[in-house]
Amino acid sequence: MQVIIGFFIILAHLVAGNLLSSLIGGFIPGSVIGMVLMFISLVTGIVKDHQIRTVATFLTDNMTMFFLPAFMGIMDLWGIIRMNIVAWVVVVVVSTLMVLLSTAFAQDGIESLLSKFRDKK
Distance (Å, rounded) from C-alpha 95 to C-alpha 58? Predict the structure, then answer.
């Protein structure tokens, strides 16, 4: 029963995120809004972590199955990708470095802000 409740909670947040996304014209993906809603629910205590832990652990442990359809789509386009392999490699490397750097700067900024708040207390 706990698994069904946990799955329903996660699915309800996803549906709410998709509905909100459609209301704002799809500017932000529904899955992202759903994750933010789930985060807010967890932080505020509306949803307790023990309610979704089993389902969340299962989903993250089996994340590969969610990427399989995208991987198969890429393999269908291998002929096009192979013709432009250098450009693809450059795009992948540059975008990976951009994500790495933006994450590092964001983490550094958050740690700086937190240290300022700790010093004031």
Answer: 29
